[in-house]
Amino acid sequence: MWFILVCFILGMFAAYFFPIEMPFVYSKYMAVVILAFADSFFGAFKSGLEGKFSGWQAITGFFGNSIVAAGLTYTGDLLGIDLYIAAVILFGIRIFNNITSIRHLLFIPPSSKYE
Amino acid sequence: MIGENKAHRIQEKVIHSIQPPKRWELILGIIAFILGFFIVVQYRTQKDLFHLIPTRQAEEMAGLLKEAENKRLDLERELFVSRQKVMDLQSKLEQEKSKNVSIGEESKKIELLAGVTPVKGPGVIVTVKDAKNGQEGNASLVHDEDLLRIVNELRAGGAEAIGINDQRLVAISEIRCAGPVVLVNGVRLAPPFVIKGIGSSEILYNSLTMSGGIVDYLKLLGIRVSVEKSDSLYIPAFNANIQINYATLLNKGE
Prior knowledge:
The complex is a heterodimer.
Chain A: H1 2-17, H2 27-50, H3 55-79, H4 84-107
Chain B: H1 2-17, H2 23-48, H3 55-114, E1 119-129, H4 144-156, E2 161-164, E3 167-168, E4 175-178, E5 181-184, E6 187-189, E7 193-198, H5 201-209, H6 214-220, E8 224-235
Antiparallel strand pairs in B: 1-7, 1-8, 2-3, 2-7, 4-5, 5-6
């Protein structure tokens, strides 16, 4: 657990000290890709806590989600529809669901579970 | 005892949580690293560049920019055309101006020759007086003929303007005797006669004073003649009213 948190903070620091800037045009794609990453992250986290973690699934989900999200955004741009909103809503809902599950798994002792 | 137990449990938990990461935690750690990295990069992009302008507005603005650019190009083209027009007009104006200048020069010449304006310039002053008293005879007086010959000599020497006692000689000026006086432009003039001629003072002086010339001749008659060169002479304008009743102007070539 602490390892994941440390990795997250390390990543932020790395970005902070590396002067990388995205071209403004891609900022929308970047945002969607970040959401996809977050979704995969929380999904994998949840399955890890449940003991159902599959590394293959996590990595394919990680890349697959971001590619699909970016592709969706690009298609939306081509067609003149804000398709990325679909990705944003879907990922948002899933992140919330996953976080709820994680909270249940982490903080509610098994004895007080309703089931 | 209960507190001890609790402390023990917390200690156990801490020890449990500080154990080395499992495999899934390692993979998640890598994902977390990338996620954190991307979040900060994205944050910086949004903050640094257009964090006040949503993407859509930026796109619209880009469209506006393109339009403005096109407009600018159009205007530049227009400006180019207008500049060329201005240049054309300017060259035309120059031509007109040069025409006008030549007209002005011509009219100046005509004015000068017609004597309607006062003139100044270098030339000679010829003063003619009657012979001293005691020398009798008609010849000792200054006659209109004498003045005419002087004027003729001045003209031959290239005088551009001639005045006798401030009467400007023009094309219709007369010089004739009227008893004891001389009439010029209908004005009676009495000796001494001061004849001013504007032209090359050297040529005028020489043509008047050459041996056997008019000055010699007049001196022979006893008439007192003096010729002076001058750098700056003033001859007033012909100020009588000219009436032309018989001559009509014909255009050139008619």
